[in-house]
Every structure is written in structure tokens, then in C-alpha cells.
Write a structure and sequence with these properties.
11 helices, 4-stranded antiparallel beta sheet
Length: 411
Amino acid sequence: FARAAAPRAAPPAHVVLVVVRGLRPDRLWPQLSPRLTHGGFARLLREGSHALVTAPGPRPWAALMSATTGLPVDVHRVFEHTDLLSDEAPTLTSEMAARGVAVSCFSEDPLWFGSGADRGCASRWSCASVPGACRADASLATAAEELTRSRSTQGFTLVVSRGGAFPLDPSAEHITAIDPAPYEGTMTPAQTVALAERGHRGDVRLDPRDQDRLNLLYDASLRSVDQGLAILLDRIAEAHLEDRVLVVVVGDRGVPLGEQRAVWEGPMSLREASTTAMLWRGPGVPAGQLLGAALGVVDGAATSLAAFDIETPAEMEGRSVRAPDSLHDRALTVEGDARGGLGLRFGGLLALPRPMALGGGLSLRSVDDPNGDDLASAQPIARALAWQSLALSSPAAGRRVFRAPTRVIAP
């Protein structure tokens, strides 16, 4: 059922979208990991809202492109880092720039710059030229300094962090903070490269100690993001910009860390790869709220556009999380009939499982008369049910599919 319209949130003067590669939601809830001690994620969970979101695709680079452009995988068609996004494809940053919003981009991943997803970035910053310092805390700290220095009337900052992406190469400081005395022969960042780039994508059999160490390297990498977010939130508070800056943090996908013998490249049937997290804090955002609506990674881009009243292009599927009353129709309503059966509601119809004694399948009932005749034999109604199901799960009307050219990267 549609909810009452929520009061319109005050528009922010600046939006910061932080895309964290390989962000696993199990590090954030049901409780925050005790290894994340810098307070960045803790403040976002306490002072803002958060949700479990669905990853856009099984391939890591394709998921990153969706998170940073707002385009679904079947639209942007970029699967490998050697693919370039079509020049005709709309992107989050190009839509912002076309409407006069100052766009700044920061990333520790040099391959992202020049991929096509960065089209519209007026300024670009990468720490790839700084040996040993190219981690999330450096990107976020630099973005925070520029944000508080510019104080532009309308500005958008995009930070693309390697976060939990392989190879896992956290700083020695963050590793030691978790485990000051690793065992002899411990798994190294170089070994995580071999795991990520293995030719055969089958089962990975890890020693229990290596399994624990892989999780430790991941958590140490995420500590860098946590530290950078703490710096960003501190700078915003020191500049008294809390009521003017919307901060959105979203992962591109999860990452398997040996569960079900899968590492990094896992099929989308694995929960570790198919879900990630989204957190947001700023003007008009309720504090400490876990949103239960069905959300996707591309909703981060849509939220950023909606904050500046920019209409989301038809090629993008996302919705703004700052207007939860607009999300109710993305969920399927579960209802029951007079006999105690549970089914899914599609508009004015209720689809209930038919007992196996009667042949199984679905029994279609009218919501107004759930105890009435079975309407499954009525073809127009069955077609309407199928159409409504398709509209809920695949809103593809008006979208174009963009074919990506290929670039050559010298060794």
C-alpha cells in the first residue's frame, strides 16, 4: 500500500558519493565489526540511515561501472577494465556537469579514470603516483579538504575507493592493529593477487589459518575506508556543514572470502557477492534507520541526482532513498486469504500456491474477494498478472543499450 507522502527534504548544497569496492554488509550489521575502530562507519550508522542493497552484476568491473554511472549492467555493457563506456551513454558525473554542478572525482584506482565513467569530472585526483600511500584514507582526506575549502553553492564529489577489492594490500599499520604477531608463512597481499587472477574459477581450498588471514587482510583494508570516512565527517562538522552536505556511501558488490570455496570472483547465487551495503547521512535523513525497501546499487546515483532536482535519465533504474514513500511500489506485498494461505499481491490480484492435491501451480484470487473463484483460467487476467510482474522486476521501457568499445592497456 502507498504510504502518506513524506515531507520534502531540504536540498543539500553539496553531495559526496563514496563508492567502496567489495563492501560486505556483514561488517556493518547486525552489529559493527569490532575491527573498525576509527568511527567513520559507526557515525554513519548512528547518525544516518542504511540498507542492504542488491549488486548489479557478478563481474567486479561491471558492478563498479554501475555504481559510479547509475546505469544497469545490461545497459552500459562494460564487463572488463579494457572496455570503454560508450560516449553516448549518460553517466552520473556527465548529468551533473551538464546542469552546472561542479564535479570533483577522487580515486585510488587509476584504471577508473579514462573508463568513460569519469566523463564530466571537472577535476581528477589519484594517489596512484604516491607509492605506499594509495589507499582510501588518502582519497577521502583529500576530498574532505577540497570540499571544506571550496564551499561551492552546488558541488558534487565522487570518491571511488578500492576498499575491499583484490589485491588486498592494507598498510602494515592497519594489519598490526588487528594482529601484531601473524603466524609463520602467513598469506600475503601478493598471494591475494594469485587468488583473484587464477585462470580456473572453480573451488578454492584454503587452510583454516589462511582463511582467517584472508578475512584479516580484508578487514584491515576496510579500516582505511573507516578512517577516511571519519576524517570526512570530522571536516564537515568542523566547517558547520552538517545541514548542507549529503554523504552517501555505497558498495558496488560484495566479495566472497572463501565461503563456499569462492574467492573474489563468485557467482551471483552467492549472497556474499550479490549483496552490499548503502549508508547515507545529511539534511532530512532519519538517524539510525534501517530501510527495509528493495534497493539496488544504482540508487546511490539516483539519490545524488535527485538531491539537485536533476531528473534521472530513462537508462538509469535507480530511485532516491531520500523519498522512501516513492519506493513502496518496488516491493511485492504478501497477503493471506480467508483459509490462511499466503500469497503475493499484484495490483488487484492475489497469487496463492494451489495445493498439490489439486495439481499445484498458482491460484489467482481477487483482492476484493480472496475467498472467491479461482481466476487462473481467465487469460486476460493471467496476462495482466504477467505484465505487472515484469513491470515490477524489469522496468526497461525507454532504455537504450550501449555497446562498449575496447581499449588496449600496455603491459
